[in-house]
Amino acid sequence: MLKENSQKQVDDLGSRFTEVFIKQSENITLLLTLLEEFDFHVRWPGVKLLTSLLKQQGPQLQQIILVSPMGVSRLMDLLADSREVIRNDGVLLLQQLTKSNAAIQKIVAFENAFERLLDIITEEGNSDGGIVVEDCLLLLQNLLKNNNSNQNFFKEGSYIQRMKPWFEVGDDNCGWSAQKVTNLHLMLQLVRVLVSPTNPPGATSSCQKAMSNCGLLQQLCTILMATGVPADILTETINTVSEVIRGCQMNQDYFASVYAPSNPPRPAIVVLLMSMVNERQPFVLRCAVLYCFQCFLYKNQKGQGEIVSTLLPSTIDATGNSVSAGQLLCGGLFSTDSLSNWCAAVALAHALQENAILKEQLLRVQLATSIGNPPVSLLQQCTNILSQGSKVQTRVGLLMLLCTWLSSCPIAVTHFLHNPANIPFLTGQIAENLGEEEHLVQGLSALLLGISIYYNDNSLENYSKEKLKQLIEKRIGKENFIEKLGFISKHELYSRAGQKPQPSFSSPDHMMFDHEFTKLVKELEGVITKAIYKSSEEDKKEEEVKKTLEQHDNIVTHYKQVIREQDQQLEELKQQVNSLKSQNEQLQATLTQQVSQIQQHKDQYNLLKVQLGKDTQHNSSHSDTLQMNGIQPEEISKLREEVKEWKNKHDLLQGQLREKDSVIEKLVSNYCFCDYCQNEVKALSEEKAALKQQLDSSSSTVAILQDEKSKLQMISWCFWLIRIRK
Asked: Coiled coil where (predicted)?
């Protein structure tokens, strides 16, 4: 006690001295100037002094530094100091400087703080680093938390990608040091700062996509399914994954595909739900799993459908080899642990959130209660447990589930009213004067009864809107009913739950309300109050208005469908236009090429005409030469016939030669060495030689004739050109 008092006195004295020192802003300006000195014995004490002043009178000193020329820039230079002592103390100084001051945070960020701090973290070994890494992470949190401008700058600068190596863990995760646990915990919190539900939706969405694209989400899921990870890191990892996937369809689809490395492999969602409904697991871990499940289903109709489908009769695994999410939720809903009841009820309510189709489908779920008894519907089983007088936490959870299920679903309301025991039970709960601990149950019972009136389609004559309102007036009283309905929003735990989506409770006993349910209460409390006081005539008018609105909605839906189809057709036509444009471009290119070739041919033709013009004067001499050589067209024809005849002879001789060769080879191959055969071979060889000589002679003659033929063709071509020119 004495130590505490003496420390307080020292702090008060330090605060007074600091106040005196900073009254003259010149003192701070001088101190900032001294920090530019490279001398260690000047710079380091200056850093320590300024840090101490900021601890004592932070806001006042921040304003002085903010208006000082280049004040923040001078302090940023400390991060580039090669002496680690000054650099590390510079990080601590900037921590104090950036606390709760958005203007200074922006200046520090634009002075390249992110780049420098991430470099230091990498140099120090990421999560395996020492306390310097922790200090850098705390400074990064100061710069990013609740600062949308800096968050956007961090994302646009591609710094999210540099966070991925922080979460690379090996297979052996035993024996983590306390510093590593602290570092990793801060790293996970930094990820959550970027994707917090309190950030602007657009900023959160872009960060979520960046984390998926760079592989950061995949790395977090690896930690989630790894073995040997400390419990508090596992809990924070679950919370981090929750916010990275919340409301992002792409990330939610990826998370649905993650499997745990078990035998047989199970979906990560199933493994997490097993922990949630296991009463032996730590309370904070169970809360984290519930939050993860809620974030997976947030604005995810596809995921909601997959969860509900595991409860429907057609999809249940009859072999019992695998446990589904639906079976785990039902098991938790009807277990003896009230916390499991509450978590399962809230999880199932999120599977139905704003999804009327699934609310109707869930009415088909049948449960086998005991051997020999017929199955009962899930809705009936919930009301049965409700009426058995279980723990308050269990009843609150079931009432929240029923309120979510029946809201905006008249068919579910009809099923609920079809059981004659339900309405008497609710009116009995509301009418009784019970203790304060039962106020929540009474308020939720009033809400459920109000939903049964507001969403009633009057299909059951005994439980129509008018009959139920008369029952309330007779058994409870309208004022008393409204008072009991108000118990919900006046409760302290209701106010806490409405602050943020993450379930955060100091103890299991305080786990009563869900964040999304508080939104439903705000939406329905006023309309139910109005519905209770409305007369039958007003109800009729409202029904007519509803029918008119439904007709309008149907018309709008029809036109939306038409517009959708037209958009699809327009898209197809656009694709066709693009295809035709591409074909047109190709044809244009071909046409250009062909025009170019035609132009080249024209140029060659014109050149040839010029050359023929020059040679015109020699035409007569060419004609005389032809006459002198005695070459006439008749002779050309005759030469052609001779060439043809010699070719035929040549081919005949070649055939005979091949025949003789064949006979000689046959005789040789048969090894016939008698005198007759030898003489025959010799005669054939001589005959072959003679034929070859004739063949060579004819080949020579054919070559001469072909040469003459070519010359005659050239002369004929020249005559043709001359005729063209004339």
From this structure: 556-604, 636-708
Model confidence at 624, pLDDT cuts 50, 70, 90, reads very low
Q: Which residue has the tokens 């009729």?
A: 540
Phi-psi map region of 374: left, alpha, beta (phi>0 left; psi -120 to 50 alpha):
beta
Give residue-wise pLDDT tens across range 66-90.
888 888 988 999 999 999 999 999 9
Q: Is 409 helix (H, G, I), strand (E, B) or coil?
A: coil
Which residues 6+ apart lie within 8 Å of 210 measured at CB?
155, 160, 161
* Residue range of the domain that includes 463: 437-536
Question: Any alpha helices (H) in 257-391, and if so which ranges?
Answer: 268-276, 283-297, 301-309, 325-333, 338-352, 356-362, 378-387
Which of 489, 515, 536 corresponds to the end of one domain? 536
Q: What is the pLDDT of residue 451?
A: 96
- Domain presence at residue 561: yes
Q: Which residues contact 586 (CB under 8 A, 6 or more apart)?
A: none
- Residue 688 main-chain phi, psi, to 5 deg: -65, -40
Do 468 and 498 belong together in one domain? Answer: yes
C-alpha distances (whole Å) from 274 to each of 279, 340, 344, 555 are 10, 10, 11, 46
Q: Is 367 helix (H, G, I), strand (E, B) or coil?
A: strand
Q: What is the pTM of this model?
A: 0.73
Residue 509 domain-assigned (yes or no): yes
User: 545 and 481 share a domain?
Assistant: no
